[in-house]
Amino acid sequence: MLGRFIMKVLVAYASKYGATEGIAQRIGEQLRKRGLETDVTRCDDLRDASGYDAYIIGSATYAFNWRKDARKFVERNVGVLSARPTWLFSSGPLGTETVDKEGNDVLKGAEPRQFADYADLVNPRGAQVFRGAYDHDKIRGGDRIIAWMPAIRDILPSGDFREWDAIDAWADSIADDLGATA
Question: What CATH number has the domain spanning 8-134+162-177?
């Protein structure tokens, strides 16, 4: 009797302060629960992404762009990503509002440019924005100058706004798409 094929999935991420890393780790845990062999790694820790059956790439978003190490990861691996099932995610919006002042969906409005840029490049099966987390006291380096400005402190709510149920549901939908067991 032949052994059952176990799909190998890579979750690669770029995170500055850890919120996106937490999302990537959670996605990895959920996929493992569904029987998928899953590696979770930082984008800048993996030069060659070959050897996987499916890919999930995510990044924190700043000024509507993914972090540079995530963008470079996709550019280095476009051939393998475009040939296999690939999904994209980002994190960034803070707070709990579902619509902005103009009535637009907050998560849709927070999509990074890379979702559109990579649509034809890697043909992702899906792309999702998740809420992030922010702690004024953990900001470091050059970001500290901006983070300590009173106006910035007022518009960037501090807290963990990640919606774990939504993250789990998205990971489950990927597992379903890949034919994983319940």
Answer: 3.40.50.360
